[in-house]
Amino acid sequence: MPVALQNDKKRKLDEAAAARDEAQQGGEAEEEVLGWTDIERLTELGIGAADVAKLKAGGVNTVAGLSMVCRKELVAIKGLSDAKVDKILDAGKKMAFQGFQTGVEALGKRDEVCKITTGCKALDDLLGGGVETMSITEAFGEFRTGKTQIAHTLCVTSQLPRSMGG
After folding, report:
1. How far apart are CA 98 and CA 37, in angstroms?
2. Which of 78, 81, 90, 160 is the least crowded, having the fewest Cβ atoms under 10 Å away?
3. What is the Cα–Cα distance from 98 to 52, expressed in whole angstroms?
4. What is the C-alpha to C-alpha distance for residues 117 and 125, in angstroms, rounded to an integer?
5. What is the 3-state secondary structure (H, E, C) of the chain?
6. What is the pLDDT of residues 44-80, one digit of tens each?
7. First vs last Cα of the chain: how many Å apart?
């Protein structure tokens, strides 16, 4: 490989690593915004640390995850009584509910949507610039047509900085 291509490739890798590091440093605040609040924050609302540890042992690690678990499953966790589960669920609801959202606010969130490149200019053009973020895109078709290849490529390109199509 020519030296110029090696240097260009190294520069792109360095840029991607710097962008990833920057995202990780700001990741804590971003997780709070996206609703992936750590379950340990329930201690701020009066839930005991021992109960939080039991939830973690039961596979509940976020407040959003708490809202997705059935009450019956929570009661089945050893050491959590019906009363404790009710108190935990109430605290989780208080922490998870951020209020209602107006149509204007929803439209503003739509402005945050960006497109991730598929790595193929022709396919990006067919998709209107790439695959949209903040949405679910379904790929279907016969076997051996490249669905898994596209999924793996998107896993890689989604980690690139926006300047490179990520």
Report:
1. 12
2. 78
3. 22
4. 10
5. CCHHHHHHHHHHHHHHHHHHHHHHHCHHHHHHHHCCCEHHHHHHHCCCHHHHHHHHHCCCCEHHHHHCCCHHHHHCCCCCCHHHHHHHHHHHHHHHCCCCCCHHHHHHHHCCCCEECCCCHHHHHHCCCCEECCCCCCCCCCCCCCHHHHHHHHHHHCCCCHHHCC
6. 989 999 999 999 999 999 888 888 899 999 999 999 9
7. 25
Name the pairing type of β-strands 131-132 and 115-116.
antiparallel
User: How many other C-beta atoms are found inside a 10 Å radius of the C-beta of residue 83?
Assistant: 8
Hunting for tokens 């840029």 — which residue is that?
15
Which tokens go with 159? 């980690």
- Per the structure block, which two tokens stand in for 26? 């700001």
Distances in Å between the Cα of 101 and the Cα atoms of 22, 91, 98, 105 are 29, 21, 9, 6
